[in-house]
Write a structure and sequence with these properties.
single chain, mainly alpha, globular, 6 helices
Length: 167
Amino acid sequence: METAESRRQGTPPGAVNAFARFVLCGGGVGLASSFAVAGLASWMPWALANAFVTVASTLLATELHARFTFGAGGCATWRQHVQSAGSAAGAYAVTCVAMVVLQQLVAAPGAVLEQVVYLSASALAGIARFAVLRLVVFARNRSQDTVRATRPVHAAVADPATLCHAA
């Protein structure tokens, strides 16, 4: 179990704890996104609504993963946002390929079979995405951790806009 001391020192959570947080954050953002797309699609074309929501939800999920899931020690960097977007695009491609393969193998798949294939592909892509985010995007560099550990921690920041951009 994670202790208050490990949180204070910026120790990243263990793999199981991080995966649970990944599912919670990603699932929460995904659920909110489905409602947002439906709402926006009543005002604009579905593809445009989906594009807006996908960009916004990927940015939000990356911030949540940086701060909460992987304990990266603050806001996500631009590099992390780009890498996270790349892994999200990869996951999207996996689900699309799975659905195309299903359409090639089964002439008229039912809704239940489509959902099983889509959710299975999503789960596999999610596991791969977790691994990429944990091992590449939010991997900790020992020399950076040493520098962070020696810097003084400020108790409060007066301007909330500077929370992510404070040096």
